[in-house]
Amino acid sequence: MIINIIDSCRRDPRTSGPASRRRTRRLWTMCGLCLLTLGACEAAQSGAAAAPVIRVQGTKSPSAGPEEPRMWMTVGEHRFAITLADTAAARAFSALLPLTLDMGELNGNEKHARLPQALPANPSRPGTIRNGDLMLYGSDTLVVFYLAFESSYSYTRIGRVDDPASLAPALGGQAARIAFTR
Fold this sequence. Notes:
Elements: H1 2-11, H2 18-46, E1 70-75, E2 78-84, H3 88-96, E3 99-106, E4 110-114, E5 128-129, E6 133-137, E7 141-145, E8 149-150, E9 156-161, H4 167-171, E10 176-181
Antiparallel strand pairs: 1-2, 1-10, 2-9, 3-4, 3-10, 4-7, 5-8, 6-7, 6-9
Helix pairs in contact: 1-2
C-alpha cells in the first residue's frame, strides 16, 4: 500500500521538481521507519531478537540514555553543565572526578591548574578559543576559557560548557576554586 502511494506520486505530473523529490524522499524514510517498527514488533511478539534501532537525524528516542557524556563544574554558587568531547583525554579526565582545583588566572580570559596526573594528549590548534571551552594544555594542565579569542597555541579538547553566558562573571578577575563532578 505504501509503495502504491509513492508510485502514484511519482507518476502525477504535479509532483515533479525538487520539492516533490524531497517529499518523496521523506515518504521513503517514513516508510522505512514503519517497516523497521513493524519488524521489531513482530520480532518481540515471536521472541526473536529485536530489529536494530535506527535514528532519524533530528529525532530523539525517549528511552535512550544521554547521547553525550556530561559533567558539572561548580564555581562558588554557580553550577555549569559541561558536555565532554569524545576524546581519550576527556575520558581520562572524567575518571579523575570528583576533583576540586584551585585555578589561577591567566591573560584575563582563562583559568588554569595542573592536574594530579598526566592525561592522554592529542593537541591541535583550534584557531579560535570560545567562551566555555575546557581544554588540556600539554598533558597535565587543565584550562577553562571564559572569553573568546584567537590563539596559535595547541590544546587537546576535553569538553565545552553548555551555556557559558554567565561564565565570565563567575570566573573573571581572580583565582578560583572550581569543583568538577559527574
